[in-house]
Write a structure and sequence with these properties.
Helix content: 40-55%
Strand content: 15-25%
Largest sheet: 4 strands, parallel
């Protein structure tokens, strides 16, 4: 089982077209450099429609991994978010939980 690292919509389409055996072993699709993708929200939705869970990381240093950077991940629909700034991640998650009426936030 593995995490599939992708860099583009073309990579996603190749994974969707892969054999059923290969797809069953993909536990997560990682959207590398997701903030450079043309339409990341649509590709996250497409991945989910095809039965995949999605993953992305925040900016890779504590200064640029802002609360807003984390919120962009959540708002894009990613299932799993990797953080480089725990304080900002907690604040962003609390905002999302409050919005979705999840208690405790």
């Amino acid at each position: 089982y593995y995490v599939v690292e992708m860099y583009s919509h073309t990579d996603l389409m190749n994974i969707i077209a892969a054999s059923e055996t290969a797809k069953k072993r993909a536990i997560l699709l990682e959207f590398s450099h997701w903030d450079d993708w043309v339409d990341v929200e649509a590709d996250v939705a497409l991945a989910k429609q095809n039965g995949f869970r999605t993953f992305a990381a925040t900016k890779d240093n504590p200064i640029t991994a802002t609360v807003d950077n984390h919120l962009r991940l959540y708002n894009a629909g990613f299932d799993v978010a990797y953080t480089y700034n725990l304080t900002n991640a907690v604040e962003a998650r609390m905002k999302v939980n409050t919005l979705h009426r999840i208690s405790p936030p």
